[in-house]
Amino acid sequence: MTSRRDFFKAAGIAGGAVSAATVGRFALAGLPEPVMQSKPDTMPPLMPNTGQPYNPVVTLNGWTLPWRMNQGVKEFHLVAEPVVREMAPGFKAHLWGYNGQSPGPTIEVVEGDRVRIFVTNKLPEHTSVHWHGQRVPNGMDAQTSLAQTTQQTNSVKTETAYTEGEVKRVDLSSGKITIKHGVIKNLDMPPMTMVFIVHEKSLIIGVLAGDQVRFKVISDGGKMVITELIK
Hints:
Layout: H1 4-14, E1 20-22, H2 25-28, E2 68-70, E3 73-88, E4 91-98, E5 115-121, E6 155-157, E7 163-171, E8 176-181, E9 192-198, E10 212-220, E11 223-230
Parallel strand pairs: 3-5, 9-11
Antiparallel strand pairs: 1-6, 2-3, 3-4, 5-6, 7-8, 7-10, 8-9, 10-11
């Protein structure tokens, strides 16, 4: 049986990397269907038919990436791949882009949205995605060699699974929560009771000792950070 000490030794070696699974029909089964664009034309704005209402933007010489709603979460699917773009009549450039275009599509979200983005890497090299406009834990921000490893070619970022647990203590002022939990599969952590940091204090507002919860956690520089929590 893995001890708490042995686990943290292994976590220190693994760092904050998120695993990638080889692309195949099983890996892709739970992902949103990737939407591709073959022309660099200015496309009409994407009117929101799910989620919060807003006035959508128009991207010049570009388009907005569609999404699906999954239990209140906007899910997008980016595909990093080589593309060919005609910059002028008869002048074609071989570029790296997303979903058939370079630059890639606009990902449009508004305040209050919950967002999940899947990235499939079809480039001939490893890649990573660094986010602007979103507050995310350092271990999810793709600062390669600092926070996580690069994503291998022909791979897809997989979603972190929920873990079930019982809340033992909540410290809202410090943004910490103590949970007696089962196996945390994405971190290979055995069942135990431990203190976690929450990415946002709002995650634990209204959470009380004795509550049964489901949560997602990542390793961020050796710290266990909860990114989602559901009662």
